[in-house]
Amino acid sequence: MIGECTFRVFRGDASGGELKEYRVPVETGMVVLDAIHWIQAHAAPDLACRWNCKAARCGSCSAEVNGRPKLMCKTRLDDFPQGEPITVRPMKAFPIVRDLVTDVKSNYAMAKKIPAFTPAENASWKWYQQDIDRVQEFRKCIQCFLCQDVCHVLREHNKHDVFAGPAFFVQAAAMEMHPIDVADRTPLLRESLGIGFCNITKCCTEVCPESIHITDNAIIPLKERLVDRYYDPLLRLWRKLRGR
Ligand code: SF4
Ligand code: SF4
Ligand code: FES
To answer: What residue owns the CA closest to ligand 1's atom 7?
Structure first.
């Protein structure tokens, strides 16, 4: 043991709650999730938190640590100033269930709206490496929803019904930019996925634990496709001449 650390952990549910203080013995290499487990084992067995892999793979231990969206299993205690308390709260953008657990089902409803991978019939399965690299980045998403949590369109404006959010622009980009996918998700992105609400603040990119370049590599190219489709005057003229 190398000392003790004070944790202030949110305890409560949709009807209200408060930060409760716990003193936790600290050992070298500990992460925030270890401290939560220690609290469950020694001080508050009814403290609710969601986790599965403890290896930054399953995306389920998302919370706000000192106000920043983080995976608790990837957040080391030695990243924080020694002697200062560490605050752990549930993600703010989603309805609370209890303590550190939030209801993230709006994300799964949004995921269902996006057409699945649709390869062309008789497509060639020989691709250039650069095409693979482009979509491989998006495949790293672990659906932790930290990007959704930090996005002001969801967090401050609560537009869960009309705005897919950065995680699902990543999902859409993975298929839209796939070399043999032929489904057209552009009208969907413009309408029910609400990509127009995104004003490219890049907050989502800053918190992604997989370092996906959400704005530069997914959102901006998708927005460019929309501009080409709906607002390029030459393309509009061409379509008009061809009666389309
Ligand atoms: S860049 Fe867009 S999607 Fe990302 S946090 Fe900002 S508004 Fe939300
Ligand atoms: S894009 Fe990054 S932050 Fe968003 S859900 Fe996927 S892994 Fe998490
Ligand atoms: S427990 Fe799986 S990502 Fe943290």
So the answer is: 198
In terms of Cβ atoms closer than 10 Å to its own Cβ (0-12, 13-18, 19+), residue 199 is exposed
Tell the residue number behind the tokens 């944790």, with chain if given.
7
Q: Is the pLDDT of residue 21 over 90?
A: yes
Choose which residue among 143, 202, 203 to substitute to test ligand 2 binding: the one with the highest number of ligand atoms within 8 A of its C-beta. Answer: 143
Give, for 69, the enclosing helix (H) or strand (E): strand 68-71
* Pair 62, 146: CB distance under 8 Å: yes
**Structural tokens at position 100:** 């550190």
List pLDDT tens digits, range 113-141: 999 999 989 888 888 898 888 999 999 99
68 phi/psi in degrees, rounded to 5: -110, 135
101, two tokens: 């657990």
Q: 36: helix, coil or strand? A: helix
Quote the CA–CA distance of 61 and 197 in Å, as a whole number.
28
* Cα(25) to centroid(ligand 2), Å: 31
For the Cβ of 153 lying below 6 angstroms from any atom of ligand 1, the answer is: yes
φ and ψ at residue 17, rounded to 5 degrees = 175, -175
Q: pLDDT tens digits, residue range 43-67?
A: 999 999 999 999 999 999 999 999 9
Structure tokens, 223:
């927005």
How far apart are the C-alpha atoms of 210 and 147, rounded to whole Å?
11
Q: How far apart are CA 193 and CA 14, in angstroms?
A: 27
